[in-house]
Each structure stands twice: as C-alpha cells, then as structure tokens.
Specification:
The chain is α/β, with parallel strands linked by helices. Helices cover about 40% and strands about 10% of the residues. The protein has one domain (about 10-255): Rossmann fold.
Length: about 280
C-alpha cells in the first residue's frame, strides 16, 4: 500500500470546485502535483471558482499545480493536458475523471443537445482522458484511474428515472469495468467512486436540491485518497461507495462530514437503494 501521494502527479478533468477540488486538495496536502483540465477560465456568475483559483488553492495546500484551460470533449485539449502534465512533472500517476454534466429531465422532455452534452462529457470524456493517459500510466509505479460514477443498479426504477443521464453515468462505470480488465496486465487500476448520500455541491444545490441533507465533499476526498494510496494491482475493477471505502479503513464515525447542528436524515444519492 502506498501510504502517501507525495510527488505523485494527478491529472483531473474539472476540479474548479466541489468534489473534484476536495480530492485535489487532499492530495495536495501530501505534496502531490495536480493538473486540472477545465473550461472555467473566467468566474461564473452563479458558481464559485475557476481552474486558476483551484490551482492556487492546491499550491497553498502544499502541492504543485498546473491549470489547463480546455474541454474534455476535445481530443486536442485532452492531448495538451496529458502532454503538459508529463512535461511539467515527468509523468502521470493518477487520472481522475471528475468532470460531469447532469440533466434529470425525462426522455420526452430531454433536448438532444443536452443528451449529447452528457454523453460527450461523461462517457466519452472519461474514455478519452483515460485512454490518452495510458502510455504514461503504464510507466508509473502505482497507477490509478478513478472515475466518479455510480454502481450499475439495473433496477428498472433507476434505469427509467432519468434515462438520458443514467446512460451517460452508467457508461462511465462501464469504462471502469472495461479498463480494469483491459489494463490488468499493465498493473493499472481502474475504479469508480460514488457517494452514499447527496454531497453539498453546486450541482446538488442547483439541479437536485436537498443540499441541507447532504454531506460535505470531504468524505469523497477521503475515500478517494484511500483508494489512490492502495496497491493498484490488488485494487481494481470496483464500483465503490464512499462510506464502505472508509469503513474498510477503520473510519465509521462519519459525523465530521455533516454540520455540527445537523440532526435530520441524510438524503440518499441517486442510483442507491435504501439499506
């Protein structure tokens, strides 16, 4: 087990805010290098943070950062990010597929441009960033691909709930399963991570609702850290849930991830059934 991410280079899609930024900052506290490929060069009127402010936070936390303004849907931008990471830090140890688009509209109401956006960012973006980084991951000591995508719950309720979004997120999880099998001989791990409960992010506040019944992004950061410090050859092909990862690490008190005055019932994230 690799106990630290010091000196490791992480290439992440998105990461200007939310879960991606929390994962980046947790790694930065070890002294990791974080390369962020994101479109947010300018501040959004309703969303905090840009790729530049995120990299500044990474460096304040103790890591080294590199901002790459680009779109994970664009093959040239992805190649620029991969080449930039290798040039700046000598290689790539970890890929985090964090960028994602969400639209929970029904099939009848979902505009095809929104469907295409989700497919292009979620499934295609995951495939593209992962495949482009493979030559560098192959040279790493403990290479990991971590994708923020759910378990493949084939219950008709979930498949039919918001089909367009579900197809794109399940596509990300299928990338995990396929890459784990394809890259096993190279010792490159591929895993997915999904939260048990809603996470207090801009997407939850603006699209899903219920941020008041959500945990902080730090639980996903701690779970991701636990996965990324495991032996890649012994830890691959899993569709993990955050609290299960932490339980395996001996962490069972999750109250630190909720506000001090919280006393209600947490909201389960989508694709997860009640216990």
């Amino acid at each position: 087990m690799t106990q630290t991410l010091v000196g490791r280079t992480i290439l992440m899609s998105g990461g200007s805010r939310g879960i991606g930024l929390a994962i980046a900052l947790r790694a930065a506290r070890d002294g990791a290098n974080v390369v962020m490929l994101a479109k947010t060069a300018e501040p959004h009127p309703k969303l905090e943070g840009t790729v530049y402010t995120a990299v500044e936070e990474v460096e304040r936390a103790g890591g080294k950062g590199l901002a790459v303004v680009g779109d994970v849907r664009n093959e040239e931008d992805v190649r620029t990010a991969v080449d930039g990471a290798a040039r700046a830090f000598g290689g790539i140890d970890i890929v985090v597929n964090n960028a994602s688009a969400i639209d929970l509209s029904s099939s009848e109401q979902l505009e095809m441009k929104r469907y295409d956006l989700m497919q292009d960012i979620n499934t295609r973006g995951t495939f593209l960033l992962s495949k482009t980084a493979i030559p560098h991951l192959r040279e790493a000591d403990n290479p990991h691909i971590l994708t923020l995508s759910p378990p493949l719950n084939l219950a008709p309720y979930w498949v039919g709930k918001h089909l367009g979004y579900t197809l794109s997120k399940y596509g990300m999880s299928l990338c995990t399963i396929g890459l784990a099998e394809e890259l096993a001989a190279d010792g490159i791990a591929a895993n997915s991570l999904w939260p048990r409960t809603l996470i207090d992010t801009a997407a939850v506040r603006n699209v899903v609702g219920g941020a008041g019944r959500a945990r902080s992004p730090q639980i996903m950061a701690d779970a991701a850290y636990a996965i990324l410090t495991r032996n890649a050859r012994a830890c691959t092909g899993n569709l993990y849930i955050d609290d299960e990862v932490l339980a395996a690490e001996g962490v069972t008190d999750l109250s630190v991830y909720t506000p001090d005055d919280f006393s209600g019932e947490l909201a389960l994230d989508i694709f997860l059934d009640p216990a």
